[in-house]
Design brief:
By secondary structure, the chain is an alpha/beta fold. It has one domain: P-loop containing nucleotide triphosphate hydrolases (Rossmann fold). 30% of the residues lie in helices and 21% in strands. The protein has a six-stranded mixed β-sheet with strand order 2-3-1-4-5-6, sandwiched between helices. Strand 2 and strand 3 form a beta hairpin. The mean pLDDT is 95. This is Ethanolamine utilization protein EutP. Belongs to the EutP/PduV family. InterPro entries: EutP_PduV (IPR012381), P-loop_NTPase (IPR027417).
C-alpha cells in the first residue's frame, strides 16, 4: 500500500491531524525526522519552511500516492512557495487544520493554500472536535488503495 505524505509548517497540526486520523487523542509530540506510520509519512515542519529540504520532500514523494499540504487556519502567512504542488509527481491535496481555533480565518487559510495548490481538493478539519476528520480519512484511504 502506498502512503500519503503530510507537509506543513512547524505547529501547523500535522502530527495532531495524523493522531486524529488514527482515532488517538493523546497529545502529539514534535516531529524531528520523517516518520513512516502505516499509510502516512509525517514530516518535520522545518522541511516546508526551508528550501534546503525541498529535495528531500520531492524525493520522498516518489514513494507516495499523494502529498497533503497542511495549512493552519489560525496563521496569517503561507509557508509554501507559490505553485509548490507542481514539484510533486503525485496527486496533491490541501487540508486546513484548526478550523475551530478562536483565531481561525478559514477563508484566509484557503486563499493562502491556493497559492501553493491552485487547484485540487481542500479539506477543512479540526482534530480537537474531529470535524472533517472522517471525510478526510475516507478520501486518503481511497487514494492509497488506488
Amino acid at each position: 500500500m502506498k502512503k500519503v505524505m503530510m507537509i506543513g509548517a512547524v505547529g501547523a497540526g500535522k502530527s495532531t491531524l495524523i493522531k486524529a486520523l488514527f482515532g488517538e487523542s493523546e497529545r502529539a509530540t514534535k516531529t524531528q525526522s520523517l516518520i513512516y506510520r502505516d499509510w502516512i509519512i509525517d514530516t518535520p515542519g522545518e522541511y516546508s519552511e526551508n528550501p534546503m529540504y525541498y529535495r528531500s520532500l520531492i524525493a520522498t514523494s516518489h514513494e507516495t500516492a499523494a502529498v497533503v499540504l497542511v495549512q493552519d487556519a489560525a496563521r496569517n502567512r503561507n509557508y509554501f512557495p507559490p505553485g509548490f504542488e507542481q514539484g510533486f509527481p503525485v496527486l496533491t491535496i490541501g487540508v486546513v487544520t484548526k478550523i475551530d481555533h478562536p483565531k481561525a480565518d478559514i477563508d484566509r487559510a484557503i486563499t493562502l493554500l491556493r497559492q501553493a495548490l491552485p487547484e485540487g481538493e481542500i479539506f477543512l478539519t479540526s482534530a480537537a472536535s474531529t470535524v472533517g476528520i472522517q471525510r478526510l480519512k475516507e478520501r486518503l484511504m481511497e487514494i492509497v488503495q488506488e
